[in-house]
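question for whoever is on the cluster today: can someone run the full assembly for these? two chains, 706 residues total. i dont have access anymore since they changed the login thing
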Amino acid sequence: MTELSSSSFQLACPIPIQQYPTVVMAHGGGGRLMHQLIEKMFVATFGSGALNARHDSALLQVPRMRLAFTTDSYVVRPLFFPGGDIGKLAVYGTVNDLAMSGARPLYLSLGMILEEGLPMETLWQVVLSIHQAAQAAGVQIVTGDTKVVDRGKGDGVFLNTSGVGVIEHNLTIAPQSVQVGDAVVLSGDIGRHGIAVMAVREGLQFESRIESDCAPLAEPVLALIAEGIEVHCLRDLTRGGLASAVVEIAEAAGVGIQLEEARIPVREDVRGACEILGFDPLYVANEGRFVAFVPAAQAEKTVEVLRRFAVSVNADIIGEVTASPEGTVVLRSVIGTSRVVDMLSGEQLPRIC
Amino acid sequence: MTELSSSSFQLACPIPIQQYPTVVMAHGGGGRLMHQLIEKMFVATFGSGALNARHDSALLQVPRMRLAFTTDSYVVRPLFFPGGDIGKLAVYGTVNDLAMSGARPLYLSLGMILEEGLPMETLWQVVLSIHQAAQAAGVQIVTGDTKVVDRGKGDGVFLNTSGVGVIEHNLTIAPQSVQVGDAVVLSGDIGRHGIAVMAVREGLQFESRIESDCAPLAEPVLALIAEGIEVHCLRDLTRGGLASAVVEIAEAAGVGIQLEEARIPVREDVRGACEILGFDPLYVANEGRFVAFVPAAQAEKTVEVLRRFAVSVNADIIGEVTASPEGTVVLRSVIGTSRVVDMLSGEQLPRIC
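^ ran it for u. tokens below:
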């Protein structure tokens, strides 16, 4: 049971499917067949100037600025899920990591590890999705690599994207900049990506269709900076969810963080699904949500700026930074009790991204 | 039958092997266990300033220069082979792609896809090898990512490295710069990497031990540029070997290339192994060899500069660029006959890098 994103069917696969219905080992062999795949499918689709040069490295022109550089591999299962797919995830995930440094994402690399026997049409859908996501996020794919592993030694498609962005501000956006008194702003409701993937993987049907929140986050972040918000720290809420992200920051910054459960939005259908599955939404992965640590005096303005963007229209202040207990996150429940939020020690949802 | 590089056993694995003898899914889960692995094994070993910041992106300071950016995934089987291992390959392979743009390699990202059940000690050996290779090549690992896939959905370790380098010259090192009359200079003997991997994979024993030529190439390349060689094009001879690299350049540049078989060094043991296995050394992968296209008047100087470095001590002129036949490589054999060299259409040695 796989879901394909609606816009993926517009273009026909440029490799003759009759001749090559599936990926074969030679598609990674460095010879004629690999070159055809790269030229006809990848370069023709992604076609940026730098990629067209077809040289070992892409040449980038970045004048006099600080750069951000990040990498992520993507092994999500299944490849297609409500609201997204591995291609979209691979672009937005890396773009979002750059955004969390306050960088403007510019360039992506794309490494593919394909399993022998992968349907060529599936590869094409992933390539199209990467292309559309890159356009939506305003980044260029400038360099790539393709490897094929034997059947049973991979799982369809694994992707790696690395990203380069420029930093056009003088802020130090990092846990070390977090200060006692800072407000914690959350950009929207949590838990959708994890539940969307889990539901399709397990064949679960809920009353409403829960779609992944998978989306690029650079625009709202750059708007915060442009509006003069003195952003102290940003973190996207991927594997491990809101809880792990906030605990990591509390530990790295040596501060306490107090969160108000009542102000953390969780959609009713997501909450219901979490109850059925035995998950705590605080730990469920997101792919289009982040927290911002900002001076309390700028918290309202932060929320106002974020709400201008569809992806963060439900932004709200969910807590504050306290002097103690150091390295600890405390959650005040709706009924007024408090509990310490810890990092997940094991695994909640494997292969969620 | 696996070979470990001799220097890999110096440090004990920083993860308690009794407690975690193998990688488990939770090592990729975003929780406490993944954080321990990252902190104790990866950050503690690679420990660059940028990596220590533990933020979503590494911040790079690169003043006013053109940048080169490249990516490669590594799926070599087996993980350890005579003369190298997947870690060394992942560092040198990407460093060499940067060098082939004439860039000075500076920063690497590291993405790991680990298979559940991978022995922790094996992971540690790979990590150590990456660390040593990065030191040898003068690059810093500044950002990373770890994913774990279920048993049977991967093959021990897949790596991706992306690299950023600076270009400190004004040359356009690319196939388009190749000119009729250029000399083709080869940096050393060919075929060792492919044969070394194949021999250990197939359990073959040759009279002498054939080791991979796996090595970083930035030093000799930067020396050529520093010595004023007007380098037109560079290409390392990885998957598809010398033949595929040269055919690719002939096609992209729209020129003919004539090679002299007698001047292409192949070690006797490698030649013998190729005969036994039915391989043509021209197509066998290398991981420490490259060709340089330079003006004929600078060919001797090019060879002289390259021979200063151990990795290219056997450099020699192996051919020249001709006006016709366009896009075609012709090999003149020892006995004076000529044959057209084509790109491999299928697969000679899968998973060689």
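summary bc i know u wont read the tokens: Confidence is low (pLDDT under 50) at residues 1-9 of chain A. The first strand of chain A starts at residue 58 and ends at 61.
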